[in-house]
Amino acid sequence: MALPRGDAEEQLVDTYGRVHRDLRISVTDRCNFRCTYCMPADGLPWLPREEILSFEEIERVARLFVERFGFDSIRLTGGEPTVRADLPVLVRKLAALGVDLAMTTNGATLGRLAGPLRAAGLRRINISLDSLRADRFAELTRRDEIHHVLEGIDAAVAAGFDPVKVNVVCMRGVNDDEVVDFAAFGRDLGVEVRFIEYMPLDADHGWERASIVPGEEIVAAIHAVHPLEPLARGSEPAETFRYLDGAGTVGAIASVTRPFCEACDRVRLTAEGKLRHCLFAIEETDLRSVLRDGGTDDDLAAAVQGCVRAKWAGHGIGSLTFVQPPRTMSQIGG
Ligand code: SAM
To answer: What is the 329 CA–ligand 1 centroid distance (Å)?
Structure first.
């Protein structure tokens, strides 16, 4: 739900005319899972504590985006956001800005945290789950914790998050045989399952185009069993479909085969305060040094505008000039 912010001083517009209104904030680079397509088995060298933005620093940046640039949507992510201590304290600070506040999580700690996060003002939640089979889940995440994630999904529904969405990264020969099972899971539970195309943001740089299962193929496989019709699309990355029998919705995020860069309204803040205009950006803008060197809000705004002015037309995956960013998805904040 977009809240009107008519009192904003100016809009954050790039050189292609795209107005930015959505901020993704990574609150930590650490994660309790080791998904094979995202992180190496031994993890990554974690950022030292003092390099991570404090809650006060995050709040200051978020306030600037909301009050000066009219942002109406903030999503917390990571790493795994729920491994950051006292996350509900940050949620309370950001909820006070009056934005649509959401989080992406692996769900493993929601049995404990769903209630406190909802009470602190978090409204929407996306939970990542790539297999419904315990053995495959353990192989993919290198953690035997599917029961915690399933409990977490139930806890999120019970805590009143609306909507609860389940994100599935669908990979050829890995979990593409579970598409219809996931659709049935979403229909039964009343949650929207969204299938995400695998992107070249893996730690091992082993991504291949052949590992992608195109969104179109996924939707066709579901439609053959549970007929669907498309819903209108806004600036959302997902193309959403409604089950014709009324059993809810399902989505596909075809970031590679049907990029939606022309409608992109997002910027991303990494855990150590680097601003990125694209998931696949190579250059970053260091907001932490502005914050810690005594910069004013005008200094911060100028740095933000400089970052967004450099935004490119599209990610260019598949083009000859595409270069995979050195950071993994977990280090950027997906
Ligand atoms: N830990 C949280 C989680 O699991 O949702 C938040 C961070 S995680 C990096 C965010 C999302 O990025 C997850 O849904 C994850 O599956 C997805 N992801 C990670 N690497 C990816 C890749 N190479 N391609 C597509 N999605 C990826």
So the answer is: 6
- Give the pTM: 0.95
Mean pLDDT computed over 183-195: 97
pLDDT of 6 strictly over 60: no
Mutate-to-test residue for ligand 1 from 28, 31, 37, highest number of ligand atoms within 8 A of CB: 37
In this structure, are residues 33 and 108 in contact, taking their beta carbons and an 8 Å threshold?
yes
> What is the number of the ligand 1 atom nearest to the C-alpha of 167?
14
Tell me: the pLDDT tens digits for 275-316? 999 999 999 999 999 999 999 999 999 999 999 999 999 988
Residue 112 in contact with residue 90, Cβ under 8 Å?
no
- Mean per-residue pLDDT over the chain, rounded: 95
Residue 277, token pair as written in the block: 């205009």
- Which burial class, exposed, middle or buried, applies to 125 when counting CB atoms under 10 A from its CB (0-12, 13-18, 19+)? buried
